[in-house]
């Protein structure tokens, strides 16, 4: 008798993209980058695992974490602070041209 079938690669990939999307929605630079790295590390470990029962357990844990991640991202968007200097967009070409003319 075989055990329950684990999640398909497509299901894992869909969960990965959902977790990355939620991680990228944090307004705080530090939280955003932390959760992106954490998501990538989590799914690398799922990808490296060969035991189907462990993959199924890791997948269900990742599903639970996604729910928490989404709620946390919403709260962070509501109470996000100031933008950091590293988040400033690069100057546009038009701005560079007007500054050099002065």
UniProtKB/TrEMBL annotation:
So which domain of life are we looking at? Eukaryota
User: Record's family?
Assistant: Belongs to the complex I LYR family.
Naturally occurring in which organism (per UniProt): Guyanagaster necrorhizus
Residue ranges of the Complex 1 LYR protein domain?
12-66
Provide GO CC annotations from the record: L-cysteine desulfurase complex; mitochondrion
Question: Which GO terms fall under biological process for this protein?
Answer: iron-sulfur cluster assembly
The record's section on InterPro entries has: Complex1_LYR_dom, Complex1_LYR_LYRM4, ISC_assembly_LYR
By what name is this protein known? Answer: Complex 1 LYR protein domain-containing protein
Q: Which Pfam family name is an example for this entry?
A: Complex1_LYR
């Amino acid at each position: 008798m075989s055990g329950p079938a684990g999640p398909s690669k497509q299901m894992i990939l869909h969960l990965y993209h959902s977790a990355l999307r939620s991680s990228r929605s944090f307004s705080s630079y530090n939280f955003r980058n932390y959760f992106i790295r954490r998501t990538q590390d989590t799914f690398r470990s799922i990808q490296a695992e060969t035991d189907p029962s462990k993959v199924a357990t890791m997948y269900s844990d990742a599903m639970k974490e996604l729910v928490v991640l989404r709620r946390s991202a919403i709260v962070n968007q509501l109470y996000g602070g100031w933008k950091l200097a590293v988040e400033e967009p690069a100057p546009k070409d038009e701005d560079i041209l007007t500054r050099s003319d002065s």
